[in-house]
Amino acid sequence: MRKLLTLTVLLAGSAMAEPGAMVPLFNGKDLSGWKTATGGTPAPGWKVEDGVLHRAEKAGDLISEKEYGDFELEFDWKISKGGNSGLKYRVRKTPAGWIGAEYQVLDDAGHPNGKVPDTASASLYEVIPAAKDKDLKPAGEWNHSKIIAKGDKIEHWLNGKRAVKIDTSSKEWEAGKKASKFAKVEGFAGPGPGHILLQDHGDEVWFRGIQIREL
After folding, report:
1. What is the pTM of this model?
2. What is the pLDDT of residues 20-43, one digit of tens each?
3. Domains of the chain and any CATH numbers
4. Residue 46: Cβ within 10 Å count
């Protein structure tokens, strides 16, 4: 009886420890669940076309209505030639505006930021460079990305290869943050809830398959 009880407890604990299922952040039909930086309805410059979210014209950033702390997030993206955008997470309102960690979305070959390791595609923008052997598709082609954020640990993946692995409590993080424009932002990218943000950086960009699993 004791063995059976122990097994039952272990199984229950295991089920509770499992992460939730992936759920869509973008439903492929409209911009339900998203707002502007001021809390308004997204501008028509963000267009939904055949299940794809396209920043076609000036529209401003998109911010998720819900906050997420620990999560696994996947998304596909393609960027215009010479284009620049990003997906930000753990985004919080500060006196300087909405600030959070950024997964850089960039045409490395056609944009000056592509020549700088910590501002190139898949980097944790301005803080941690992406791996030199990352597998990046050129402008106009789809890339698949993943972000894992759990406590102090953050990972960026690009097309099946890990591009960033960092602990926000480490000396490496402290040095990178100190050298960035986020040096004075307390708690930047650290544990705790924040919004997801799709950046309007003035260039055409496409997103699809945006989904998240809370951990």
Report:
1. 0.90
2. 889 999 999 999 999 999 999 999
3. 21-214 (2.60.120.560)
4. 21
